[in-house]
Amino acid sequence: MTSRYVGLFAVAAAAIVLTGAGISAQEAERKGIPAPPGHVFKTIISGYEFRSKETRALQDDDLENPGFLAVERAADAWKKVEGSEGKSCASCHGEAETTMKGVGAAMPKWDDRLKKPVNLEQRINICRTEKMKAEPWAFKSQALTDMTAFVRFQSRGMPVAVKTDGPMSPWFERGKQIYYTRVGQLDLACASCHERNNGKFMRADFLSQGQTNGFPTYRLRDQRLVPLHERFEGCMFDVRAEPYKPLSDEFLALEVYVAWRGIGLPVETPSVRN
Amino acid sequence: MADKPRIKLPKEAAKGDVIQIKTLVSHVMESGQRKDAQGKAIPRKIINKFACEFNGKPLFACALEPAISANPYIQFNAKVDEAGTFKFSWTDDDGTVITAEEKIALKA
Question: Structural domains in chain B?
Answer without folding.
Answer: 6-106 (2.60.40.10)
